[in-house]
Specification:
The protein is an alpha/beta fold. Strands 1, 2, 3, 4, 5, 6 and 7 form a 7-stranded mixed beta sheet that branches. Helix 4 links the parallel strand 5 and strand 6. Helix 1 packs antiparallel against helix 2. The chain is globular and about 55 Å long. The termini are far apart. About 6% of the residues have low confidence.
Length: 221
């Protein structure tokens, strides 16, 4: 169990899976820079996260900007939306009659990604909700702004294990307070932190490696 002062931001999972260096710059070095993509995404989440605008109709409750946390995983954050639907096999909710199934919904500005960063972020939200509400959540949804469609995500054992491993690695890196180097890729061009990160410099050799190579070359002469 983690104490509250050890909690990491749940939203950082997406950064970490996308690029560990990006995550460290944001969450360890407290660096940030906006571009069109981040600004557009921020506007979408600000609209979705209106916690004062909750809906209740026909056995469905939609809670927006719901705070979640997990002492077991050591993370905390907010869910864009959580849908509670009347279900005989669901869980009880404080102040509500009946039992409800629980479904997290995460909103993204773009389209489905090739990696699993969005899926892991959603899975982490589900595991936090399961811990808080003493329930089981078999699936959730990712809504993408460009496609205007929901993508159903099943929380199977494999994605849960991957998500927990990523969170454990985040805690190890955070405790070390180190910002890793990375290999430059095409994705660097779209990153809002590219001018802070300077990914080109990450490909440079370290000083110790440079000295070692110089000594080796002198010995071969």
């Amino acid at each position: 169990m983690y104490s509250e002062d050890e909690y990491l931001l749940l939203s950082g999972i997406q950064h970490f899976v996308f690029c560990r260096r990006q995550w460290a710059l944001i969450h360890i070095e407290q660096q940030w820079s906006e571009n069109y993509r981040t600004a557009d995404g921020k506007i979408m989440h600000r609209n979705v996260h209106d916690s004062g605008f909750n809906e209740k109709r026909n056995g469905l409750i939609i809670a927006r900007g719901m705070a979640v946390s997990s002492p077991r995983l050591g993370i905390s954050g907010e869910c864009d939306a959580v849908e509670f639907r009347l279900s005989p096999n669901g869980t009880e909710l404080f102040g509500q009659s009946g039992r409800y199934s629980v479904t997290p919904v995460e909103y993204k500005r773009g389209e489905p990604k090739e990696d699993e960063c969005d899926i892991m972020q959603l899975a982490a939200q589900a595991m936090c909700l399961e811990e808080m509400l003493c329930c089981e959540i078999p699936f959730g949804f990712l809504f993408y702004g460009e496609t205007r469609r929901r993508l159903k995500v099943e929380f199977d054992d494999e994605i849960r294990r991957k998500t927990e491993n990523v969170i454990e690695e985040m805690h190890r890196l955070y405790r070390s307070r180190s910002t890793p180097k990375v290999r430059r890729t095409k994705a660097c061009n779209a990153c809002s932190l590219k001018d802070i990160c300077l990914p080109v410099l990450c490909s440079n050799k370290s000083a110790s490696e440079y000295v070692r190579n110089m000594l080796d070359s002198e010995e071969r002469k």
